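Handout, section B. The chain below has 179 residues.
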Amino acid sequence: MIYWQLFWAYLKIGILGFGGGYAMLSMIQFEVVDHYCWMTMEEFADIVALSQMTPGPVSINLATFIGYTVGGIWGSLLATTAIVLPSLLMLVLVMKFLFKNKENYIVKTTLASMKPVIAGLIFVAALLMMNPTSFVDFGLHQNNFSVIICAVSFVAVFWAKINPILIILASGLVGYLIY
């Protein structure tokens, strides 16, 4: 019975949850703490903290950890599958539609018009990251090492085509040595 409850709870969250893991947090809390009483609020808060520290989407990490806590390995697999399943099915349907209609004028025009929008969103995200918190030493009378690291990283990835993972590791090492 617990496996069916886990699957159903996370399937509902996967279908109705929009906006990412943090937006789904209240839905997950309701199902796990209030509705099914699988754990206390303190235990839930601990699992949320653990989910934030591990790589990957928070909602999927929560499903995996809560599923494991409640139902072991099978609970973990069921909860993770259930939260991913609606998005996966929607993606398959959309991709099937796009591949079937890729020569359609409306589909081609829509996809072509989305490219600059996506580039703009990525650019805005980059601009939002350029703040005093990210560049702690930026200014006229500062050493500007963080700006230099950023610029060199950009050139290394964009023009020199160096693997971004290597750039991240090198930037981390340089930042550690400087700061």
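Note. The longest helix spans residues 58-100. Compare this with the example in section A.
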